[in-house]
């Protein structure tokens, strides 16, 4: 449309498949002010003419009962006129409204549950779900497979919370919900499940439901979430998505509550063990001040808790033992543990107890210090007996105690198995393997804790130990009790256990080390890719420098020569000759500088943000821009986008397609109509694009090595500049891809682009 300053439409044109709603407006010789809904468009025209800047405006029409939305792009034509392009954006507007709906829904969920947890949180979820789906009845159910029952954890009926109930699993819709992942019954729910408890006191017609999982990928279903309607179900556009959002939040909270229960149970067990175990347990802070002490400790030493808490642990030792403690302190701080340190402890009544101390430093998940835990074993009586026994017997007893202490308190996991069946494990094994007690291991096959990928290696290690009777070390993946996987380094040794040849496996977690190694390998690969990219850019820079020096020097030399001619012969004819040729030379120089600037922009392009692009949309945009060229060439396009989309920088994909398509048209064979075939596909995780024409073709034997060079042309075409293919190759290779060409003179040319890996 061409519009005057006063809003009069001076000229307008419709697309051949024009919008009937716009055609019905009849803009001919009318002013925008005649339509109240074009007020914003009129204001945009005035602003555009005032500022000279492009403007946008929007309006809405109702045509044949449907609301349609439009966007107007306005550009200044001259001092008193603008040009306007009107395009329909109804679908875009609908998508924006859908996003607003989703945002409002998520905001309502957040605001309704932000200050609650546990059952209150779940009750808020069912309440919010009833509002979001306009349902009469919403509920969250959990499965008790041992009793074949469904137990509700939250119910909302008619906008209010009601008491939880128990239903028979067999008569419920759970199995069908699980089978379909999302079950929707428009009407007749009562007829489909007549024995379901809810249908005995109410009449429900509509139903929607989804299963609940702790882990969506691998977990077993824990129950389901559903909504019921007394009337027939009115299908909402987003019912399934809304229910999925609510079910995910419900499952996450249920899992959090379950985890909290397990944590509390674990903490209670630890406290009971700490206080009730017949061992001298105590804990200190970083500087050795006692912060916790077990009941057994107080009972046997005669102190009360306030006499111990707040004092340094070393104060309870004899002066000689204090020296021992100070001596081992640096090693303890460095290692984070110590074992079987002989000390003399002074009881409240002044008596000396001979003790064996083991200690370890506890750190949180981030490696930050929490506390030191110490265990003092009272060996006073043992020492008295040992001193009375012969030295040989003393050594045997001492060695036995040291071995047991080492096994129990070893910083590495230890598993002993006989004939492949686990007989004994230490505490570190239970910790590393995320177990609860030794009964998670005793009696089970040792290989059942080995990841399938490592079973062959583990079996080979065991066979070698029995055959060579020598220790054997290897790395493998270890399956924990909870199903998680850690990477370990394991050392196997042949021992005698309960009179039978057995294998003792000592192992420790090397997951962090292996992850670090993998990260290093990934960084090495990234550096290699960067080096390749730098090498390509260096080659391009060298070629650019060569072309720049050659192509810029020639016109400058020509200009200097013309000036000298004028100085020698200042006649009018000579001046006309000089000025005419200077003009041509300057225009050529300007053209060369523009081309070199395009090359520089391509080589150092910063805007390489990848986004999902659909080939069809990008190609249509390009073809719309070269309609005249297509028409003059009478070009036919054969398109097969098997690979429909790719993550790629938008400016690069448009440039690559436009260069290759316009080249195919530019170098067509004048004896036949141009046929251009464009295909995309995926192979071995990589994306490919080919553009094939039936044009003049290129002699690759003669020009193949120079095909992608700057300012290289191979046909007597006045439009040829030798820049497009250079830029295309630079763009593709800068993102790790490649391009190759197949061509025969007189038959045509085919360019094949490898975009690289798609992930």
UniProtKB/TrEMBL annotation:
SUPFAM superfamilies with a match to the protein in the record: ATPase domain of HSP90 chaperone/DNA topoisomerase II/histidine kinase, GAF domain-like, Homodimeric domain of signal transducing histidine kinase, PYP-like sensor domain (PAS domain)
Key word 4Fe-4S present: no
Sequence ranges assigned to domain PAC in this UniProt record: 339-391
Catalysed conversion reaction: ATP + protein L-histidine = ADP + protein N-phospho-L-histidine
CDD domains xrefs: PAS
Gene3D superfamilies: 1.10.287.130, 3.30.450.40, Histidine kinase-like ATPase, C-terminal domain (3.30.565.10), PAS domain (3.30.450.20)
Coiled-coil features, chain-numbered ranges: 513-547
Occurrences of domain Histidine kinase (ranges): 547-759
Stretches assigned to the PAS domain: 266-336
EC numbers, comma separated: 2.7.13.3
InterPro entries: GAF-like_dom_sf, HATPase_C_sf, HATPase_dom, His_kinase_dom, HisK_dim/P_sf, PAC, PAS, PAS-assoc_C
Domain of life: Bacteria
Keyword terms: Coiled coil, Kinase, Phosphoprotein, Transferase
One Pfam family per UniProt: PAS
NCBIfam families linked to this entry: sensory_box
Protein name: histidine kinase
Lineage: Bacteria, Pseudomonadati, Bacteroidota, Cytophagia, Cytophagales
């Amino acid at each position: 449309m061409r519009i005057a300053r006063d809003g009069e439409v001076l000229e307008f044109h419709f697309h051949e498949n024009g919008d009937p709603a716009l055609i019905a407006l009849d803009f001919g010789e009318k002013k925008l002010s005649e339509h109240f809904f074009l007020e914003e468009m009129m204001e945009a025209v005035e602003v555009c003419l005032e500022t000279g800047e492009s403007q946008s405006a929007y309006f809405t029409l109702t045509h044949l009962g449907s609301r349609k939305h439009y966007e107007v792009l306005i550009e200044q034509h001259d001092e008193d006129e603008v040009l306007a392009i009107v395009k329909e954006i109804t679908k875009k507007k609908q998508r924006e409204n859908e996003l607003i709906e989703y945002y409002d829904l998520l905001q309502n969920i957040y605001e309704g549950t932000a200050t609650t947890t546990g059952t209150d949180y779940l009750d808020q979820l069912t309440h919010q779900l009833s509002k979001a789906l306009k349902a009469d009845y919403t509920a969250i159910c959990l499965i008790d497979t041992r009793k074949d029952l469904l137990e509700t954890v939250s119910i909302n009926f008619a906008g209010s919370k009601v008491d939880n109930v128990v239903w028979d699993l067999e008569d419920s819709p759970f199995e069908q919900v699980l089978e379909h992942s999302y079950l929707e019954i428009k009407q007749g729910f009562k007829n489909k499940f007549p024995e379901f408890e809810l249908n005995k006191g109410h009449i429900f017609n509509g139903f929607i439901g989804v299963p609940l999982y702790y882990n969506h990928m691998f977990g077993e279903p824990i129950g389901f979430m559903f909504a019921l309607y007394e009337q027939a179900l009115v299908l909402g556009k987003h019912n399934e998505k809304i229910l999925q959002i609510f079910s995910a939040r419900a499952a996450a909270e249920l899992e959090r509550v379950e985890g909290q229960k397990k944590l509390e149970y674990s903490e209670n067990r630890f406290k009971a063990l700490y206080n009730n175990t017949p061992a001298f347990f105590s804990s200190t802070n970083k500087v050795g001040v006692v912060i916790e002490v077990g009941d057994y400790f107080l009972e046997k030493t005669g102190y009360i808790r306030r006499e111990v808490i707040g004092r340094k642990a070393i104060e309870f030792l004899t002066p000689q033992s204090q020296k021992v403690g100070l001596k081992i302190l640096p090693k303890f701080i460095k290692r984070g543990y110590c074992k079987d340190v002989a000390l003399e402890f002074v009881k409240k009544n002044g008596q000396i107890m001979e003790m064996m101390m083991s200690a370890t430093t506890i750190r949180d998940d981030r490696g930050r210090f929490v506390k030191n835990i110490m265990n003092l074993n009272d060996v006073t009586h043992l020492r008295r007996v040992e001193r009375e026994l012969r030295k040989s017997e003393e050594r045997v007893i001492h060695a036995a105690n040291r071995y047991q202490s080492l096994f129990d308190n070893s910083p590495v996991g230890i598993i002993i198995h006989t004939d492949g069946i686990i007989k004994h494990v230490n505490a570190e094994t239970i910790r590393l393997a995320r177990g609860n007690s030794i009964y998670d291991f005793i009696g089970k096959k040792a290989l059942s804790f080995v990841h399938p990928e490592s079973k062959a290696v583990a079996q080979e290690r065991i066979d070698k130990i029995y055959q060579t009777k020598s220790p054997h070390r290897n790395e493998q993946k270890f399956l924990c009790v909870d199903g998680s996987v850690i990477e370990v380094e394991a050392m196997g040794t042949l021992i005698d256990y309960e009179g039978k040849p057995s294998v003792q496996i000592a192992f420790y977690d090397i997951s962090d080390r292996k992850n670090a190694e993998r990260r290093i390998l990934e960084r090495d690969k990234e550096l290699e890719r960067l080096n390749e990219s730098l090498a390509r850019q260096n080659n391009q820079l060298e070629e650019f420098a060569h072309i720049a020096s050659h192509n810029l020097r020639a016109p400058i030399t020509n200009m200097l020569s013309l000036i000298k001619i004028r100085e020698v012969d200042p006649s009018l004819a000579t001046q006309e000759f000089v000025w005419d040729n200077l003009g041509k030379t300057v225009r050529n120089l300007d053209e060369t500088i523009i081309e070199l600037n395009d090359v520089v922009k391509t080589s150092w392009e910063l805007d390489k943000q990848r986004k999902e692009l659909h080939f069809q949309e990008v190609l249509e945009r390009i073809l719309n821009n070269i309609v005249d060229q297509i028409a003059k060439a009478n070009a036919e396009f054969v398109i097969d986008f098997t690979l429909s989309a790719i993550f790629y920088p938008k400016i690069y994909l448009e440039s690559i397609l436009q260069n290759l398509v316009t080249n195919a048209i530019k170098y067509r064979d004048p004896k036949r109509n141009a046929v251009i075939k464009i295909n995309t596909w995926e192979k071995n995780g990589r994306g490919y694009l080919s553009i094939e024409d039936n044009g003049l073709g290129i002699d690759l034997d003669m020009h193949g090595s120079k095909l992608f060079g700057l300012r290289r042309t191979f046909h007597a075409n006045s439009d040829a500049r030798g820049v497009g293919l250079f830029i295309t190759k630079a763009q593709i290779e800068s993102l790790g891809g490649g391009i190759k060409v197949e061509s025969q003179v007189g038959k045509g040319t085919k360019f094949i682009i490898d975009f690289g890996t798609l992930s």
